[in-house]
Each structure stands twice: as structure tokens, then as C-alpha cells.
């Protein structure tokens, strides 16, 4: 990465001719609207960026057992110009966040950092133009060819249980989870206990129950009783998205895979989404693979960034 301070003209006065060299240009009046959503999925150094005319999808993965996606619709940006059907690259997410907050990430009312993010295509760096108080900083971050994200094949047709809750109902229990427990057990059932979170730590067993008629429960669709366990270490990163969100969708499919979808409002009241998929704790042989090898998942096809993350709100 290289940084340089520049006395360049303000972003608002830059000509369209300057953009001809880029295949992707995305502008925001407030860089926090991007940095906050990226912080929610920052648990590994590198992230895969995929852009289509519909917006931007940022993917972070861990050990073929956890995948987090941030969805930022094109409408969130003040400008979103893309010259190809798909533009993809991989960058160091930690470095990107440091650049986005180079002016300190001020939350003072009326003070914001304007962002113009440009990418010239394969082999070119990701260039950030950041302006605050008339000072323009230019950051160039090296990019890599993106890896193909794993397709966990989690589709709505295979969903067996689904609930939508107000995030406040989960924030306190998640903050109090016994982190000495290696797993979080989730029970979803059409009968009692309906929706239960359980831990098994040094201080004993603990259960958090959510009645289906609770004021915090906005949707309850459970067709069969399922009890699955997930590594606490894999779920811990999701607390960042939970803290930012106002609603959360919890879904499990017939294999016990867990999908968490968070509705997040940015500083301007616009809606973005964070989706997290977690593999349950099972023997590798349960996935039809050798016990000496990892489970086999197909690679994701080229991104079609339609509002897939919005499906859970359309019930």
C-alpha cells in the first residue's frame, strides 16, 4: 500500500474524464456508511469484492466453515458506475478500513469524510480519494485476483425453520453467552421451546428461550424440531453485525446449516445487509466426504447481486 497527501482539487470538481480509466467508480458523501458495514465482517485480513450494476458484495471466509457477506446496494452510493457486468478483486480489509478512517472516522454531527473509490481493472490498485475539510488524501491499495467464494448451497427451498427477531432481543443474551462453552446450541421447533439458545460452559448449562408470541418475534416459521451445535469461535464474529443491526433473520436448512441475516441502517438511515452462513459441528463423514478430508462444497458462480438478502423481509 502507498499513501500520499495531495492538494488535489475537491472531489466535487473532478471531471468525468478522470473516470475514463476506471472500470468501477463508487462515491459516498460519508465514508462511514461503508466502513461501518465492513467492520461487521472483519474477522480475517482479506476480503473478496464483487461488483455488479446492482451494487457491491464483500465476502470474508474462514476455514470453509464460515462465510460473511456484506451487501451494499448501488442506491446507497451517490455515484455508482460500472463498465462491466462483473468486477472482482481481493484486498486487505484491515488496510482498507485504516484508509477509510484516515481522518479519524469522526462521528461529530455535520462532519463527514467524502469517499470516491476507483478501480482500474485487473492488476491495478484500488484507489481511494478521501476528502474532509478541504483536504484530499489519495490512498492506493494493492489488489489481488479474487478467490472463488465457497457456495454453501443454502437456498430458500431447503429452509426448514426460520424466525425474524428484533435485534435488541439477541444483543443482551449474546453479550452474556458463556464463552467457555465451545459451542452454541440452537433449537428451533414448532412446539416448546420454540427458539432456544444453549451453552455448556465451566459454570454449567444455560438456556435462553424465546416464545413464538413474544413482542420481539416478528416472524415464526418452524416446520420441524431441529437442534444443532455451532462452534462459538465461528459465531463470535457475528456479534459485530448484531450490534449494528435492528432486525435479524435466523434460518436453518435440512442439513443444519445456519444462516444469519442482519438488517443494518447506516448513518443516513439507508438499509444495508450482512449475511453469515455457518456450518454445524459434525463429522466430515456426515457431509458425504472422507473423514480425512474437508467437506466438499462447490464454488460459487459469478455473482448475480440481486436482492437475495432482502428475501427474508418480504414475508
UniProtKB/TrEMBL annotation:
Entry keyword Cell division: no
Sorted UniProt keywords: DNA damage, DNA repair, Nucleus
Localization per Swiss-Prot or TrEMBL: Nucleus
GO cellular component: checkpoint clamp complex
Domain of life: Eukaryota
SUPFAM superfamilies, A to Z: DNA clamp (SSF55979)
Keyword DNA damage included in the entry's annotation: yes
Pfam families xrefs: Rad1 (PF02144)
Membrane spanning stretches: none
Gene Ontology biological-process entries: DNA damage checkpoint signaling; DNA repair
Main location: nucleus
Subunit structure of this chain's protein: Component of the toroidal 9-1-1 (RAD9-RAD1-HUS1) complex, composed of RAD9A, RAD1 and HUS1. The 9-1-1 complex associates with LIG1, POLB, FEN1, RAD17, HDAC1, RPA1 and RPA2. The 9-1-1 complex associates with the RAD17-RFC complex. RAD1 interacts with POLB, FEN1, HUS1, HUS1B, RAD9A and RAD9B. Interacts with DNAJC7. Interacts with RHNO1; interaction is direct.
Family designation: Belongs to the rad1 family.
Job description of the protein: Component of the 9-1-1 cell-cycle checkpoint response complex that plays a major role in DNA repair. The 9-1-1 complex is recruited to DNA lesion upon damage by the RAD17-replication factor C (RFC) clamp loader complex. Acts then as a sliding clamp platform on DNA for several proteins involved in long-patch base excision repair (LP-BER).
Annotated protein name in UniProt: Cell cycle checkpoint protein RAD1
Organism: Scophthalmus maximus
